[in-house]
Amino acid sequence: MRNTFYLLLVILVLACSTPKSDQVFVHSDISNFWNAYDSIRLTKDSLKQLDLLNRLFIDKASEGQKAMIEVRNYTPEEYLEAIESYPEFWESIRPNTLKAETHNKEIEKGILKLKDIYPDLQAADIYYTMGVFRSPGTGFDNFVLIGSEFALGDLHTQTKEFTGARSHIKNYYKIDPEKNIQFLSVHEYVHTQQKDAVNNILSQCLREGVADFVASLASGQISPFPAFVFGPAHNERVRAKFEDEMFNFRAGRNWFWNDDNNEFGASDMGYYVGYAIAKGYYEKASDKALAIKEMIELDYTDEPQVEKIVDGSAYFTTSLEELFQKYEAKRPQVVGVEPMENHGQSIDPKLSRITIEFSEPMDQRFRNFDYGPLGQEASIQISNVIGFSKDRKSLTFEIQPLESDKQYQLTIGNGFMNDKGFPLKPYLIDFKTGTK
């Protein structure tokens, strides 16, 4: 009797000391997909295939599957094309997807650790979805959406059918993704806690890098992607390139959403830079818990707070403000407008041609005109672009007839670029015509 009492006591203590989780996992979309897949493969009638896909998969979709279809813009036609084109791939990945729930405990362990290092964690449901090769995972509202066709692959997944525009897909399976499902899930879980990035390279870099760094703390793993091998080994080179381009909105594809056909030979190097910034800030912080909270809850529209984290990391060679000023100094400018005086208040309404003069040769492939602050009503209307001068330091265009005694504007926009890819500092042409 005494032994029984002690046994019950031990069980009770263990139960009380084990962290509890109410984590929700949804797997139904996987079985729905395979039901649709099997039926679709039995007919060549495209209308029947579409009906089967809708009835057996899309119409039965969970909230998470619906969200994945929405945020990645998947169409029924894409699903049918993929089912038809890659039968060996689908059959090879099928067993892994059907045992998706075996990963739940591992993922749950990572989420509990995340809760430990970030106590303010808000719950997010995890959905195993089936998509068409545009996302291994994404955080959306309070959903973690796992793209099972990517995330549950392994080194044995058949990829030889991926050619042409989809040949890059092969690279993803080289990281043995199923072994990294915990890291991926925690990374996306962090995204559900974050605010949206603003539209610049640095913000996107920070948002992804913070998720990677926090996921590494919670999972004990580092990102499995090649950028995290190349980055540390060539940090000075990567950093110098990023310092040169982070304020250039046209350089985004050099750092995100690309493949390995670039100067680094590794895709998505922006993730590594963001990770390095987050890691530096965390390691230098005296209050580690506060550092995690600040990074996860960062408001990317709050420039002083962004600067605090970036400069506090000591990752870059100088302050963010100084790097911005260096970037601004490299941008081309408009140095003159002919034949009239800009901001003139009595410009001849017979003016029919304008020449813009630049500070340096411009890339002829790019140009950009826009309204001024007064909008379309006051806009100078271009009737014909004559083109660049031989030295590419000026551009001439013809304009539609002007009215007398009227204010006119035209913005020469940052779509213009010099030969090094730096965008023009926007310039406003602004004048008023005189009386005839």
Main attributes?
single chain, about 425 residues, alpha+beta, Immunoglobulin-like, four-stranded mixed sheet, four-stranded antiparallel sheet, 17 helices, globular, signal
Description:
- The protein has 17 helices and eleven strands.
- By secondary structure, the chain is of the alpha+beta class.
- It has three domains: 152 residues, no CATH class; 135 residues, no CATH class; 99 residues, Immunoglobulin-like (Sandwich), CATH 2.60.40.
- The strands form three sheets. The protein has a four-stranded mixed β-sheet, with helices on both faces. A four-stranded antiparallel β-sheet has the order 5-6-9-8, with no helix packed on it. The protein has a three-stranded antiparallel β-sheet with strand order 7-10-11, with no helix packed on it.
- Helix 2 runs antiparallel to helix 3 and helix 3 crosses helix 5.
- The chain is globular, with a radius of gyration of 28 Å.
- Keywords: Signal.
Structural class from helices and strands? alpha+beta
What is the alpha-carbon Rg in Å?
A: 28 Å
Oligomer: single chain
Low-confidence stretches: 4-19
Number of helices: 17
Mean pLDDT: 94
Number of strands: 11
Q: Output the strand order for the largest sheet.
A: 1-2-4-3
Helical amount: 40-55%
What count of structural domains?
3
Taken in chain order, the helices and strands follow as HEHHHHHHEEEHHHHHHHHHHEEEEEEE
Largest sheet properties:
4 strands, mixed
Beta-strand share of residues: 5-15%
* CA distance, first residue to last residue: 113 Å
- The best one-word shape is globular
